[in-house]
Amino acid sequence: MDTSPNDADSRQALLEQLIVALSRLARPAKAQIACLAALGAEQSVDELALELDDVAEAALSTPGLLSVGQQDLLRDLDRRLEAMSGPEHADLWSQRGLGTSPAWTQVRATARAILVELHAEPAASC
After folding, report:
1. Which residue range is the domain that position 95 belongs to?
2. What is the number of domains present in the chain?
């Protein structure tokens, strides 16, 4: 395994990106909506999932970055979000759905569990 500073820096940056994405998914619905507004994507609830999707694949394919348990939780979160996709679930991808859906409650709980397993403090800001 390459242990050069650039490799270590890349791995750390990837882990930090994962923590930010998980932190946004773990926040209460009102805080998620505020984050989306800060990103200029207030009406794009799917941005929360897209952000995780961008980094999760890279994190899962980086050897040694995540433990097996952390990988399993991340895959579970990805499956939960995937099960929520499609036109038949469009109501889940609204601000109302974000605040009222039990599916989003489970997403938040899973994201928090991953942060605990990572021994990571949730990112303080959006």
Report:
1. 7-117
2. 1
